[in-house]
Design brief:
- About 45% of the residues lie in helices and about 15% in strands.
- It is built from 14 helices and 9 strands.
- The strands form 2 sheets. Strands 3-2-1-4-7-5-8 form a 7-stranded mixed beta sheet, with helices on both faces. Strands 6-9 form a two-stranded parallel ribbon.
- β2, α3 and β3 form a beta-alpha-beta unit.
- The longest helix has 23 residues.
């Protein structure tokens, strides 16, 4: 995998860019809030500190909360970050899940604006913070850029196949449906008034529901091309398991997420019971073989799409 931060081009660009910047920012009070689980965010935090320190007049903090990671070495990395200037670290004793930890971050933050970044993302753009700070809007989503891996990695080939749908121009066409929480800025008071739904205890879709809540409240989402890097990919078996968990979450919360999920829209558009029955039968007969392919070294995206559809439909059987 390629880490864009370490390329000579990125190093030269950073060196040329980072001079003391003095200008009238639209936002000058920022809390960068990072949930982590079994991850090492030191490199990202160091880059964020470099950028923040170069911006004159910016009041900032970086708050990292570890969601009870079982990997004690990673927790130790978090405590190291907590000793850096302008940085705070908390380690939870019990895992509270994706929705609750993001609400906790908003509660514990001190500044007017929040920048949410997942702990496994990377910051590679030298103007990353400046772009956010000089952008209008109460909720701003910057998107993500996929790094490199080989074609044996299912998560990588899946993300690359959908990358063209995630440009700022495409996202803005359906701003609430294309909102994700891995890299976005929000006014803290907005986040406190519109919290993540803590009934989402399992993986997936808490961000989709938040987008729906913003729409219902009349809060606009501005989509901009300011990606964080998505360079770390889990192994195939782990990704398939996460996908299954996400589909179970989607089925459980389907009434809340209707109109915000392509899977729900597609399944509810199948009006012939025989078609649904046939897909379920296929999954019962061949689902294990499909899963074996997806967890192997030559995963197929077509098989992945069929497996997800079959898995979801069997949840209602």
């Amino acid at each position: 995998m390629q880490n864009l931060k370490k390329t000579p081009f990125a190093q030269r660009l950073t060196a040329n860019f980072f001079v003391i910047l003095a200008f009238e920012m639209k936002k000058n009070s920022l809390s960068i809030v990072i949930p982590v689980y079994n991850g090492d965010c030191r490199e990202m935090v160091a880059e964020l500190r470099r950028q923040a320190e170069a911006i004159a007049g910016l009041t900032y903090e970086i708050l990292v909360i570890d969601d009870a990671s079982p990997n004690h070495e990673m927790v130790g990395h978090g405590w190291e970050v907590g000793h850096w200037p302008h940085c705070r670290f908390m380690a939870l004793e019990q895992n509270i899940g994706r929705a609750r930890i993001r609400n906790l971050l908003a509660t514990r933050a001190r500044n007017e604006w929040l920048l949410y970044l997942d702990g496994d993302m990377a910051v590679f753009r030298p103007d990353f913070l400046l772009t956010y700070l000089d952008c209008d809007g109460d909720v701003i989503y910057g998107g993500y850029q996929v790094g490199k891996a080989d074609d044996s990695c299912l998560r990588y080939i899946y993300e690359k196949s959908t990358e063209h749908h995630h440009t700022a121009e495409q996202r803005q066409k359906r701003p609430y449906q294309h909102f994700h929480t891995s890299n976005f800025m929000v006014r803290r008071q907005v986040m406190l008034a519109h919290r993540f739904d803590e009934s989402f205890l399992t993986y997936g879709y808490e961000d989709v529901l938040l987008g729906k809540q913003f729409k219902q409240a009349g809060i606009s989402i501005t989509h901009i091309p300011n990606p964080a890097g998505f360079f770390t990919f889990e192994d195939n078996a782990h990704f398939v398991s996460k996908t299954e968990e996400g589909l179970r979450t989607l089925y459980e919360k389907r009434d809340l997420l209707r109109g915000y999920s392509q899977m729900i829209t597609f399944v509810e558009g199948i009006h012939l019971g025989l078609v649904k029955w046939s897909i379920r039968l296929w999954h019962w007969l061949f689902g294990r073989l499909e899963r074996h392919n997806l967890c192997g070294r030559k995963p197929s995206l077509r098989v992945f799409k069929l497996y997800k559809l079959g898995y979801y439909l069997t949840l209602s059987a």
